Amino acid sequence: MFLDQTYLFTPGPTPIPNQVNEAMARPMIGHRSPDFSVLIEDVATRLQPVFGTKHPVAILTSSGTSALEAAVVNTVHEGDHAIVIVAGSFGDRLASIAENYGATVHRLPIEWGKSCSPEQLDAFIDNLEGVPIKAVFATFNETSTGVLNPIHTLGQVVKEKTDALFIVDGVSCIGAVPVDMENDHIDLLVTSSQKALMLPPGLAFVAFSDRGLQAIRECPERRFYLDLKRYVDTYEKQKSTPFTPAVSLIQGAQAVCAMIEDEGWENVIRRHLLLRDMMRAGLRALDLPLLTTEEDASPTVTAVRPETVSAPDIQKALKKDFSITIAGGQKDLKGKIFRIGHMGYCTPFDVLKVLSALELTLAKFGQKPRFGAAVKKAEEVYAQYV
Ligand code: PLP
Question: Which fold has domain 18-261?
Fold first, then answer.
């Protein structure tokens, strides 16, 4: 068997399109040059519809966690109260970051595999009556469980019940889902490059509402590399970044903008819904239990809790026999689930590939062969969409 072809189905990093690789291989340019100013302004503004913001998007050279840390240090100060919705390992990380900076964090625990309902947030805020909440943090798409939180209705609750900033970790869904920062009441929205934005790891993005921008401008806290005010000022005055950026990745981001525009942003969103629905229909046809309900299902990653064959065994077999890489579970779900990423540079045919490999893998582990069953169901979903 030829194993030099590899298939990446993790929820980040994700496959890189050729156009993006080619753009990243363009000759280097100086980051204090007029060429770079043209480049960064082009990318920062063309990304605006993807983040649903009317302000240019800040591009940091670091991973998503640093942008989340930046979101914390630029808004929440020692002793401030913050609510963090914790529905999985990334919500947990967000809470830890805020705690590390001395915030008093009120964790709203949600059962892993479920979304946070507006009613849960509402009741949690009611219980904190009298506590001045500086910020509410939410994970838009909880990558560890494959849950998409109802960010619009959560934002409405934050807006109606508090004066807090609403800060959203959109790392594993921005570039795949619709978002409108004003309408969703999001003040800071963060993502990283290696997910639905089809880039290698190395860039992090922060988008702002008017209020979010004002908050970072007024922040009295000490910070340096993660100083978003310094970032915004440098961008506005010089169309550059405060420190040396990953120029090649930003060149790649320009190609990503062109790809999203060519496909059409609405079509990108629709494709991710199609990928989700094909994947879920196929997995169900193999009697593989899904971790989430239809209502909570993420359009970018699907988590499966197999009962008859262990998740790590399936993961290993896919790698060994088909060079397919998927992800395992994290923390409490380690060893219990596997996760398939389907975001960014991913097509319906990619879903068929991984489903057919799963059919063969389950048969290899002694299950009654269901050759073609998952592919058939996924194709039926496809046929209804197009
Ligand atoms: N938040 C979410 C929801 C994620 O999925 C990830 C990474 O998988 C992160 C934060 C951390 O981002 P990074 O690994 O780019 O630091």
Answer: Aspartate Aminotransferase; domain 2 (3.40.640)
